Amino acid sequence: MKNVFLYLMIYAGSALMAYNIYRYVCFSRDVRKHGNWDQEQKLFNIPIMLLILFFIGYLVVGLFGKPDLVMAGILFGGSIFVFVMLLLIRRTFDRIQKNEQLEARLLAAEEASKAKTFFMSNMSHDIRTPLNAIIGYTTLANHDGVTYEEKSGYIGKIETASRQLLEIVNDVLDMSRIESGKFSLEPASVDLEDCVQEACDLVRTQLESKKIELSVSCDVSHKWVMCDKAMLDRALMNLLCNAGKFTEENGKVSLRLNEIAYGDETGSYEIRVKDTGIGMSEEFAERLFIPFERERTSTVSRIQGTGLGLAITKSIVDMMGGDITVQTEKGKGTEFTITVSFPLAEPHEENCSAEGEKISFDGKRALLVEDNMINMEIAQMLLEQAGFLIETAENGKIAVEMTAASEPGYYDVILMDVQMPVMDGYTAAQAIRDLSDPGLAGIPIIAMTANAFQEDIKKAEEVGMNGHIAKPLDIPSMKATLQQVLKNTSTYHS
Predict the structure, then answer these.
(1) pLDDT recorded at residue 389
(2) Which of 317, 363, 375, 465 is most deeply buried (CB count within 10 A of its CB)?
């Protein structure tokens, strides 16, 4: 019985030592991956040789020897000791790795904090610049003795500064949505050539004001694809506007769209945006798509921008499954190249005759639901100038009561704010849709709100609203939405 116990200790120690050898081999591999240990290579080999010799000793004693209690105890205890030591070394190494990872994260966080601090400094400047123009030109326009021509000029400059301020706010909000994972694509059938031409048309006036020549070319065989037109427009606009900002007078900007390959269901495309501007350093080009980054030069510091446009563009291209690269040289210009594949789509024809039908707003009655008095006054005046008769409600509850007390057909449309006290716009829209009278329940309702993201538009659709108008109000867009909603309503009722 005693010999059986001794041999069990020997064999258990042998198995444990074999496991120790395996653990040490794995551990040494991890250490080598973690750093350069060429000089310590021989040191790593010494323990494994000793462990193997120990293991051979176990086997010799177990198979050919006659172990006594002292020898079996020493060998078994040695195996446990080696196991514990390897475990402690592994734990120590893991802790060192975690500390290094924490240090790397801390360094990255510090770099990000520096970038955001620089961004906030730029943001303070970039926000105050258009605000200064808005406040300054408003003060000048209110002075006595200002001529009509001077006042018109001031108002035009106020509008330009307001749009610059809106672009800054949109960039910050979009970047926030991207970082929170709320940024998503809505693919639809799109004509790529039209998309490119529209983006160029939108920036052409801005470039012409700086005497910058803009050239566009498209070489595609399959122009109809499935993609998110709004997001592709945003990416192209960011690149074109960026090119315009950093190109001096009499410079050149070009956009080239080429089809580089296609299959049965997918087409691959290359979009190049090139300028003859100031270019950038190789060091900054490596950080170009990092949010809040802007090159720190005297020339760049004079140009308005948040450092978010290219980061947003990169995120859009990534979500589309594409790739964006840059080639640049100081003083010689920059070229961005987007390579992306889209599912091919069937072409569809626009109903031009339907688009040409315009509905007059004269005499149309609208219920404007808005809790902010300034917003209500602005919207009311704009709608009245378009021909509407306006009635107002300060919250959703009043709007529901006014609608329920009216006759079917009295209101042609309800323009509903979303965030309001007492009852919000979504709840009010659902309450109107639940009215027992079908003529009242079917009144067209349009969200007129600063909640302007895609998820807000979807939410408006889910509660039964017929359209969405974003604040600040874009007059042509507002009229187009009203035209579409009223046209669809009249077609439905007819």
Answers:
(1) 96
(2) 465
